[in-house]
Amino acid sequence: MTTIDTATGKEAPAEISSERVKDIFSSIAKKYERFNAVSSFGAYKLWLAGMAKQAPIDSSHDVLDIAGGTGDVTFTMAREKRPAHIQCTDLVPEMLEVARAHYDEGASAGVPVDFQVVDAQDIPYDDASYDVITMAYGIRNMPDRPRALAEMLRVLKPGGVLVCLEFSTPPNGLWRALYSFYLKHLIPFWGGLITGDREGFVYLARSIKAFPDQKGLAQMMRDAGFVDVTWKNYTGGIAAVHVARKPE
Ligand SMILES: C[S@@+](CC[C@H](N)C(=O)[O-])C[C@H]1O[C@@H](n2cnc3c(N)ncnc32)[C@H](O)[C@@H]1O
């Protein structure tokens, strides 16, 4: 199976991306929420609300949050959708430690959440165990995206749904050009200034540029076996929420 360097989209051994992502997220874990606010231009709350609106979660559901980081998606879904249980997972233990601390402070408003270090490309759960999978800003960081999507399909129940929030490509040429300039020149500068982690922002900008557009990601989901793939753009397509279903 071909793996890529997530900073360039070019073929490369998986370890290059995995080690870099571990380095970045283990060192910024405590500052991540600020990083998130800066990297999404403060719009992440709007996009997260859009994601929650599109997530077909009900009170009987067991939800798997992939690349859950410090728990933003998990706790938003917990508060807004009140599922029976959420499994919050991430590759980097330091990120989950922050999530666990938020949980201990009551961030899930009583919804039970368990935490586990999981590489989405090798999910240690049984086939057909979850009703809904959520994933925000995760797939872009994975060197073997087809494998990660295949793993998500495997652990979803038949008819289960993947809801994926990710940076994307503005369809309007002018907006795309402005955004591209902003990503390349301004994001590393002031992201670095605010969080002290310029390298993380250089990586962020490069990985967004190298990531497939809305249609490309939808096709990757279909290639993995998902059906009924749709997406909704946010902030003119800077971000998009894809929703995809596992066949019955
Ligand atoms: C930008 S953060 C997003 C965190 C969270 N979803 C949010 O919205 O705040 C990306 C996360 O993806 C995780 N990640 C990267 N590669 C991963 C992989 N192969 N499997 C699971 N998580 C991964 C990183 O550790 C990091 O916590």
Q: What fold name stands as the CATH topology?
A: Rossmann fold
Number of domains: 1
Helix content: 40-55%
Which architecture name does CATH use? 3-Layer(aba) Sandwich
The gross shape turns out to be: globular
Rg computed from alpha carbons, rounded to a whole number of angstroms? 17 Å
Instruction: Please tally the β strands and state the result.
Output: 7
Largest sheet: 7 strands, mixed
Q: Helix count, per DSSP? A: 9
- Compute the separation of the termini in Å: 27 Å
Poorly predicted ranges (pLDDT <50, ≥5 residues)?
Answer: none
| Cofactors, ions and other ligands in the entry | S-adenosylmethionine
Quickly describe the structure:
The protein is of the alpha/beta class and 248 residues long. The protein is 46% helix and 20% strand.
Describe it.
By secondary structure, this protein is of the alpha/beta class. It has 9 helices and 7 strands, in the order αααβαβαββαβαααββ. The protein has a single domain (14-245), classed as Vaccinia Virus protein VP39 (Rossmann fold). It has helices spanning 14-28, 32-39, 44-54, 72-81, 93-104, 145-155, 173-195, 198-210, 214-224, and strands at 62-66, 85-90, 113-117, 130-136, 156-167, 227-234, 239-245. The chain has a 7-stranded mixed β-sheet with strand order 3-2-1-4-5-7-6, sandwiched between helices. Helix 7 (173-195) packs antiparallel against helix 8 (198-210). The longest helix is centred in the last third of the chain and has 23 residues, at 173-195. The two termini are 27 Å apart. It binds S-adenosylmethionine. S-adenosylmethionine binds at residues 21, 25, 36, 67-70, 72-73, 90-92, 95, 119-121, 136-138, 141-142.
